[in-house]
Design goal:
The protein is mainly β. It has two domains: 196 residues, Jelly Rolls; 316 residues, TolB, C-terminal domain (Neuraminidase). Strand 34 and strand 35 form a beta hairpin. It is globular, with a radius of gyration of 24 Å.
């Protein structure tokens, strides 16, 4: 809905001024634009204009509705290359259906556009299967090449309906995010065109953390054999999943059926073919924790609550034995739970000493074994806030107990995290901001380094799952799920975590491509037939032909040529 041409003109002028003063050439940079007009049309009221409504409706159900958004892009450097465009829409409800964005002329006015005079839908600019409520949903779109006026139409492709915030809404209006790269320059982004952001308690666009932050330039990438791109563009890699997990027996309707999320790979050192993948079902009613084999077949499911993220460590001392310890945060009661995994049967058995309460509401989880003390820790993040807590795990009469040893303020919501057990670092994905690197030891304070940021051409919010591929002699890679464009970014594990490449996971045969990825996990070890050189597991939100999301298995050799560390 109209924000006022005076305000729009002022923002355009600010964009021009910012660009001319700061960056006469493109290099790498980003920009954010607010919609100058938006509305929707309805088949049920073909002569009614909805330009003053606080919502945008898109429907292909009994009543068809089309949403329309217009952006005026101005002030970009003249020599912009490798433009990436993302349409951000805040959804009021969830749907598992596909939502499509179409090109339309920009000559319409929100005051007069109705069903009977709406423009015909043009080329499809982007699609997204599955929309999540109460958050921004990012649509990677084509067709934005530089300065100009752009008209977009949004509608459903199946019998469903979705409602988004319009510019008239109090918070979280439509946004167009642009980023670009300079192929001749590999330094950090230096251009920022005018931005307009709107935040709520659980959706913060910039970090407000009081911790000490340091941004470092990338160091040279390690001398490991892989396809490398330094501009942030997609590499020539074309990985695809060769197996996928079965549906959870309890199903689930949470977030339109997106009940899968995180995973933890357990490699059986004695018999790699007998390895397993531990996974969560985050549905509030039907949730729990599952074990799958390497063909994706369900081995066990325990309905233990709304499990968030999962992790594991081998060799945890418990009751006089060395066990495979699996841990997870339980969003049902804001606790952390623990299970042992039986290597022979691949069955989970609960071993928590009590209901171990955490910060509330909890959200993400990962584990860490200290290379200096050998102690094992758990990290738990906060939903809708920026807090993160560290717990020391210990044997309490043959059961696992925990005590809080550290608290951090990340700034805003984070879920994905991973700890480097050899180098002693903790990586945290602040969903709308970027990736942070902390010292993982509990006595090391809050000092951190920013590995990468959202909007720099390599990460599109949300930053979700993080995982580490360990290589020989301390080498390896940090992988990060860039949910907004359904890609995975790869960074060096050592030094300044230089950016290496990024890729998407395609489909083959009866297995569909990966999209809107949350959790990921990786191992460089022999995980059995089909995964002798390692395995990447990725969550797929839009699991084609199914009512719920699942996990996809990708042979690591399709992505990285990595020698695992010696055991």
């Amino acid at each position: 809905m109209r924000r006022g041409w005076i305000l729009a003109t002022m923002m355009m002028l600010l964009a021009v001024i910012t660009t001319v003063v700061d960056t006469p050439s493109a290099k790498a940079g980003s920009a954010s634009f607010a919609a100058v007009e938006d509305t929707y049309t309805s088949q049920a009221s073909p002569t009614t204009a909805h330009g003053s409504a606080a919502e945008l409706r898109a429907s292909a159900a009994s009543v068809e509705r089309h949403a329309y958004v217009k952006f005026v892009v101005q002030g970009l450097p003249a020599d912009v290359q490798s433009m990436t465009a993302t349409l951000r829409l805040w959804a009021q409800d969830s749907t598992p259906a596909t939502v499509a964005v179409y090109q339309v002329p920009s000559s319409w006015s929100e005051e007069t556009l109705v069903w009977n005079n709406q423009p015909a839908l043009g080329a499809t600019l982007g699609t997204k299967r599955g929309v999540k409520k109460n958050r921004y949903n990012d649509f990677a779109i084509a067709g934005v090449t530089g300065d100009g006026s752009y008209g977009l139409a949004i509608t459903q492709r199946s019998s469903s309906s979705t409602t988004f915030h319009s510019s008239e809404a109090t918070l979280n209006p439509p946004q167009l995010l642009l980023s670009w790269n300079d192929p001749s320059n590999t330094t950090e982004s230096s251009t920022t065109v005018s931005t307009t952001t709107s935040t709520t308690a659980d959706q913060t666009a910039t970090s407000a953390s009081s911790t000490t932050a340091t941004t470092v330039s990338p160091s040279p990438s390690p001398s490991l054999s892989t396809t490398t791109t330094t501009s942030g563009s997609l590499s020539g890699l074309s990985p695809y999943a060769t197996a996928e997990t079965q549906a959870f027996p309890t199903g689930g309707t949470f977030d339109g059926g997106d009940v899968a999320d995180d995973s933890a790979i357990w490699v059986n050192p004695a018999d790699p073919a007998h390895s397993a993948v531990i996974a969560d079902n985050k549905d509030p009613t039907t949730g729990g924790i599952a074990v799958f084999d390497l063909a994706g077949k369900l081995v066990q499911f325990r309905p233990d609550g709304q499990i968030g993220n999962v992790d594991l460590r081998q060799g945890f001392p418990l009751g006089g034995r060395s066990v495979v310890l699996v841990g997870a945060n339980n969003r049902s009661n804001n606790t952390i739970g623990f299970w042992t995994l039986d290597p022979a049967t691949r069955q989970l058995t609960p071993v928590a000493a009590r209901d171990i309460s955490t910060l509330s509401p909890n959200y993400g989880f990962c584990m860490y074994r200290s290379p200096s003390s050998g102690k094992v820790y758990a990290f738990v993040s906060q939903a809708g806030g920026g807090q993160l807590e560290q717990y020391e795990l210990f044997d309490n009469g043959g059961r696992v107990d925990a005590s809080k040893v550290r608290a951090l303020d990340v700034g805003s919501q984070s879920e994905g995290c991973v700890a480097d057990d050899d180098l002693g670092y903790l990586y945290v994905g602040e969903e709308d901001v970027g990736i942070w690197k902390y010292d993982a030891e509990p006595t090391t304070g809050a000092t951190r380094i920013q590995v990468d940021r959202v909007g720099g051409g390599r990460l599109v919010a949300d930053v979700e799952g993080l995982t580490l591929a360990y290589g020989a002699n301390g080498t390896g890679y940090l992988l990060a799920s860039s949910q907004g464009d359904s890609t995975i970014a790869v960074y060096a594990r050592t030094g300044g975590n230089a950016f290496v490449t990024r890729f998407s996971i395609g489909g083959t045969g009866g297995i569909d491509a990966v999209s809107d990825t949350d959790g990921i996990d990786v191992t460089s070890a022999d995980a059995g037939p089909g995964f002798a050189h390692g395995l990447l597991v990725a969550h797929d939100a839009a699991n084609s032909g199914a009512s719920t999301s699942n996990l996809k298995y990708v042979p690591l050799e399709q992505i990285l040529d990595l020698t695992p560390p010696s055991t």
